[in-house]
Amino acid sequence: MAAFNLIESPRKVAEAVYSKTILAGDGWMHDLLPGQVLRIVDLEGNQAADTLFYDADQPEDHYSAIATIAGQANVYLTAGSVLRAESGKPLVTIIADTCGRHDTIGGSCSAQSNTVRYAHEKLHMHNCRDTFMLQLSKREADYTKRDLAPNVNFFMNVPVTAEGGLQFADGVSAPGYYVEMQSHGRTTVLISNCPQLNNPCNAYNPTPVQVLIWNE
Ligand SMILES: [Zn+2]
């Protein structure tokens, strides 16, 4: 297991230009300007913030887990990670992280994956894929369901075993832990604050996250 990489931010909450609480199961879609810094705060701990990134001027150039992992030669995301688009272009760089490790392999929950992972009667439950779709539909001039892409699971603990398998393990985050990233260009961020009731990552208890933005 890779070491946890903890870097605190010098930014003060009172100086943020934007603040919003995203309740569990809710979505949020927002454009970052070049140089702006986004912090996601895990308010109550062990929540999963499923997040997608797009080049706001070329939405088809979305976040790529493969380009990001290959670029840094590490499967986990933390401070120093450059989150890259399909084209290889940097979208955002993680510049502070008090959690220390985030997943980008596990994907987001969907009605289908809930039936496979947990039980068939989970089909009707809320899931991140539906939240992503709802948010994308609000900007249908620019985004369609074709823009659903691989995502980051901030605060989610998905250890990769020596054999290459995935484990959905107990969370490693805690109340108030955060991750902070700086945008390289105009970047659209799409968050689904996971409503997952079946996952030990969030102790079977989905909770709110907060987003804060600074201009630099
Ligand atoms: Zn989810």
Shape: globular
Helix and strand pattern: EEEEEHEEHHEEEE
Distance between the termini: 33 Å
Low-pLDDT runs of 5+ residues are: none
What structural category characterises the helix and strand content?
mainly beta
- Count the strands? 11
Beta fraction: 25-35%
InterPro entries: DUF1989 (IPR018959), UAAP2 (IPR017791)
Organism: Paenibacillus sp. BIHB 4019
Protein name: Urea carboxylase
Pfam family, one: DUF1989
Note the main attributes of this structure.
single chain, 216 residues, mainly beta, six-stranded antiparallel beta sheet, 12% helix, 29% strand, globular, binds zinc ion, UAAP2, Urea carboxylase, DUF1989
Give a verbal description of the structure.
The protein is mostly beta strands. It has one domain (13-214). It is built from 3 helices and 11 strands, in the order βββββαββααββββ. It has a 6-stranded antiparallel beta sheet. Strands 2, 4, 5, 8 and 10 form a 5-stranded antiparallel beta sheet that branches. A hairpin with a 5-residue loop joins strand 6 (82-84) and strand 7. It is globular, with a radius of gyration of 16 Å. The N and C termini lie far apart (33 Å). This is Urea carboxylase. Residues 21-182 form the DUF1989 domain. It comes from Paenibacillus sp. BIHB 4019.
